[in-house]
Specification:
The protein is of the alpha/beta class. It folds into two domains: 164 residues, 3-Layer(aba) Sandwich (Rossmann fold), CATH 3.40.50.2000; 150 residues, Glycogen Phosphorylase B (Rossmann fold). Helices cover 36% and strands 16% of the residues. It contains ten helices and twelve strands. The strands form two sheets. A six-stranded parallel sheet has the order 2-1-3-4-5-6, with helices on both faces. A six-stranded parallel sheet has the order 9-8-7-10-11-12, with helices on both faces. Helix 6 crosses helix 9.
């Protein structure tokens, strides 16, 4: 991305964030990097993930000198309100959505009610603007949190790094599916074993939790755990697989689907949440109803039987990722938003 024109005012954005070991970390780092490449000054402060349980303690954090706007995740943003600067709040998916409840344990549900819910409400009240990643999440925020106009700015990936590579599988290798997700019902981890058994020996499912470790016992032999992968290892796995598997039952965006598309792979999975905003069914992948395991297995077999279809969908996915979910568009939208709230707050950028 290019720099600002000579003479243009320079923004200084503060991104106070928690190290969560999740896609939220990836989003924050990609946003910071993209803003810097666009000529925006960024102060990115990482706080220990333990503040998640006591977010109000972050009120003690010192405000960097010379900032124009504060941009934080909804779980902690309220702690940075009242400092004389506009506050932009991001919520990737609304965890208080009643449809999210089946994917929580009793303990997690209690934690969300007692800690997370009040924090979200306080952040929404303090925000100049609430931003989310998909129309799906924007609808949830409007319906259940009463936010009138959430802004939608889709996520993106580094398409130089996440790209197709010249990787050839050995003749006779199983058809490989790559699953990125933690060990949870929301991500559909519980479906991997029955799916692998249904598919049989001609198929293999590779699993990683991305930034989090994940493993399980008593799994069929055609499931392979790759452990926690580095960024390079993650890209390599995307390139070496035949298709990306997204078994999520609830998803606010779908980073794995986008990254797989960026690496030229078709996506197969459930049409849940915002996944069908990322993946174009029948063009860049095949999506079936949530929990329709037989239909999912049939879709995988369809791809396995047609290498030409796999390649065409992968190429279409790569083009879709670059053209619709670009860093240039995302960063430009954030810069415009920052300038809007700074101007509306009565200060100059």
């Amino acid at each position: 991305m290019g720099e600002f024109e000579p003479g243009a005012e320079r923004l200084h954005v503060w991104l106070p964030s928690l190290r969560a070991g999740s896609g939220a970390d990836v989003y924050t780092q990609r946003l910071a990097d993209g803003l810097c490449r666009a000529g925006v000054k960024v102060t990115l402060d990482w706080f220990d993930h333990r503040y998640e349980f006591m977010p109000a303690l972050l009120r003690r954090a010192s405000t960097p000198v010379g900032i124009d706007v504060i941009h934080a995740n909804a779980g902690i943003a309220f702690a940075f309100a009242g400092r004389g600067f506009p506050l932009v709040v991001t919520d990737h998916h609304y965890v208080m959505d009643p449809l999210y409840r089946p994917f929580k344990s009793a303990l997690q549900h209690a934690y969300h009610r007692m800690v997370v819910g009040p924090a979200l409400s306080a952040s929404y009240r303090s925000a100049e603007v609430v931003v989310t990643d998909s129309e799906f999440s924007a609808t949830k925020l409007h319906t259940y949190a009463g936010i009138t106009r959430p802004r939608v700015i889709p996520l993106w990936a580094d398409y130089d790094e996440f790209s197709s590579g010249e990787v050839k599988q050995a003749p006779g290798s199983p058809f490989t599916l790559f699953f990125v997700g933690n060990n949870s019902r929301r991500k559909g981890f519980d479906l991997l074993a029955p799916l692998a058994r249904s598919l049989g020996a001609g198929f293999e499912i590779w699993c990683t939790a991305g930034l989090r470790a994940s493993s399980a016992t008593d799994m069929p032999p055609n499931i392979r755990f790759l452990g926690r992968l580095s960024q390079a290892g993650l890209v390599d796995a995307y390139r070496r697989c035949d298709a990306v598997l997204t078994a999520s039952r609830y998803e606010g965006f779908g980073y794995a689907a986008l990254e797989g598309m960026a690496c030229g792979k078709p996506v197969v999975g459930f049409a849940c949440g915002a996944v069908d905003e990322v993946v174009e069914h029948g063009v860049s992948g095949i999506l079936v109803p949530v929990d329709a395991l037989d239909a999912l297995a049939d879709a995988i077999r369809t791809l396995q039987a047609s290498p030409e279809k796999c390649q065409a969908m992968g190429e279409a996915g790569r083009e879709r990722a670059i053209s619709i979910f670009s860093e240039e568009a995302g960063v430009a939208a954030y810069i415009a938003l920052y300038r809007e709230v700074v101007t509306g707050h009565g200060t100059s950028a």
